[in-house]
Amino acid sequence: MSQLSFSKITSSYRKPLMALLVMAGGITSSYAATYHIDPTHANVRFGIDHFNTSTNTGGFYNITGQIEYEPKAKTGDVSLVIPINSINTGNKAFDLALKSPDFFDVEKFPLAYFQSTKWHFGDEKTGSQVTQVDGNLTLQGEMHPVSLTATKFNCYFNIMLKKPVCGGDFTTTIDRTKWGISKYVLLGITKDVTLNIQIEAAKQ
Q1: How far apart are the first and last CA of the chain?
Q2: Can you give the C-alpha Rg of the chain in angstroms?
Q3: Do 105 and 96 form a contact (C-beta atoms < 8 A)?
Q4: The pTM is what?
């Protein structure tokens, strides 16, 4: 084969090859970054009406897990592990009651889990980013879907950690009886529980 013929053949393949490389580069750059949840900046706080008079509150702490997030591609994923034994209401006797088989049954179900299934994003022109995260909450061995409304979500460069950090606040209301926690419902304590979730995670 002549040098001229070879040049023509390689030239004919050059453009498609370059296009393929550009496409591959685009795919690679769209991969979501991984962020590890910081347990000191993550919690799940709850509030439940107490006989239509006041609101009992408490929280779960030392949450672990990770976030996969790519704002340009509008993709995200989050998984959380919630240690039920970390419950704190500010009242030790009440904490023990909530850890008992009547409520969370900590000995049998020490952990709860949340795994997202879909992230919703708003209009970038209005400054909206993450607006809602759908997922499954596993509690008491039962798994049911929940939707978390993002009241705040943002990323910034943490000077102390010297790496990007993303986090936000989320809220939802669940029916506790779906997870088998129905104590005192018949006596007037509502089955609806408001959850407020705070998470912050550092890029790996």
Answers
A1: 52
A2: 24
A3: no
A4: 0.81
